[in-house]
Amino acid sequence: MQPFQNEKAQLIMTLRGMGIVDADVLSAIEQVPREMFVARALQAHAYENASLPIAMDQTISQPYIVAIMSAALQLTGRERVLEIGTGSGYQAAILSFLCRRVYSIERLRPLLVDADNRLREIRVTNVTTRLGDGARGWPEAAPFDRIILTCAPPVIPDMLLNQLKIGGIMVAPVGRDRNQQLVTIRRSEAGFEEATLLPVKFVPFVED
Ligand code: SAH
Q1: What is the CATH number for 77?
Q2: Strand order in the sheet with 127-131
Q3: Closest Cα partner for 202 from 91, 99, 126?
Q4: Which of 5, 35, 59, 168 has the most CB atoms at less than 10 Å from its CB?
């Protein structure tokens, strides 16, 4: 039997109960071993529907929020996705099952090194990472079909909006500490259209 199989099944049921219906997203959550993305001491909690601390005062998001954000990206398997905030690499691993390629930027080297190692270990080969300031985006690989932020800026940097394709979707937490909302932004010929999903609590998007 796979490790954590019961806990995993329980989590999927919880997410379904909370309204997550996207079968591809649920399947990705089933396939990614979340216990590998947290410290050994927290592994027993890996399949609780809770955010958990990772190194350097950062957090791995609650599975429900990972599911909501992944579903909101409306991926078909063909997209190139930019992620700001690699952190543990968990969200990137989930996306790797749902799109063609993930480009993920992290500003803290120790986190990035660990994330790269984990992704290699679980044989995820379509995630490319880089160390840097996410506010600049990834100009050489732009424009992107989708962009996801896993850290919250007070307002979305223009450089990132400009790297979203026409027809593309961005999902991001926006706002300061106690006042963040998860938003989706769709880009069309006419401009950017924003919709609010729910209040959230993410670590801040740090501008270097
Ligand atoms: N997606 C991650 C969540 C990690 S928390 C996961 O699944 O584990 C958010 C991450 O954003 C932190 O690791 C933090 O260091 C990073 N971050 C914050 N501001 C950033 C910036 N300007 N550029 C790149 N990464 C940033």
Answers
A1: 3.40.50.150
A2: 127-131, 101-106, 80-84, 144-149, 164-174, 180-188, 191-200
A3: 91
A4: 168
Nearest-5° angle of CA 10, CA 16, CA 18? 105
Nearest ligand 1 atom, CA 207: 22
DSSP-H helix ranges across the chain: 5-17, 23-31, 63-72, 90-96, 109-121, 158-162
pTM above 0.90, yes or no: yes
Model confidence over 123-168: pLDDT tens digits?
A: 999 999 999 999 999 999 999 999 999 999 999 999 999 999 999 9
Report CA(190)–ligand 1 centroid distance (Å). Answer: 31
Residue reference for tokens 């049921």: 13
